[in-house]
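Our preliminary data section would be incomplete without showing what the modeling component actually yields. Below, a chain of 253 amino acids is followed by its predicted structure, encoded as tokens that our downstream tools consume directly.
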Amino acid sequence: MIYAGIDIGSTAAKAIILDESKQNIIAKKLMPTGWNSKETAGEILTWLESLNFPRSDSRIIATGYGRVSVPYADKTLTEITCHAKGAAFLANESGNLTVIDIGGQDTKIILLSNGRVVDFVMNDKCSAGTGKFLEVMSNRMGLTLPEFFALAEHGQEVKISSMCTVFAESEIVSLMGLGTPRENIACGAISSVAAKVAILAGRKANGTKNYFLTGGFCEAALLVKKLAEVLNAEVKTCPDSRFAGAIGAALLG
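Predicted structure:
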């Protein structure tokens, strides 16, 4: 028996296959969600079939915004449940844990106590503090996200005070007009995201300083560093953290 988890998010779709013990990842796939979640789910099915696992010996669980677009799934689960389970697995943590998931369209703070979800909060009404914010800022500066982060590593933080993506973009335009170095603006934008995430985390503080970052920015060292600074605590993560939702879905299969 193998267990497959599919997480179709707003920006990226992730799929994971765990072996029968549910301890080992034996295959994984990452791809853009694109404009049609059903087509994305179809591409993932083609990938699953190419691995030659008999459907009768497979259990498939879907999560994320596009979970309803996976008709071949045996079951669908909410992303809160799956991200929490996947993060605890990756962090090797069965006690208290605060999961920070920075997604393309929202940011989630999930509190776990003894490995179980006890509370959560989401920033899903405004793109500030999400991946979309950084995407808008990098586009405004004519950079890809990898270029944006690479440039920010060499910058000195400039304050971006607006709490709104639209107004923050206007701030950046003004800074560019004043001749502010791009690397400083990029560094300031990343610090702005870290500050907004810290405010969101503060709304659900439970005394634990055990933080674990999931989502597509898990390998963005500067963002992890800035988060640690504003939270005054270590923020753990790992390269597979972007697959946390899919891993959690597979574990719950």
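The chain has eight helices and ten strands. Helices lie at 37-50, 79-91, 131-140, 145-152, 165-177, 182-202, 221-231, 244-251. Preliminary results of this kind motivate Aim 1 of the renewal.
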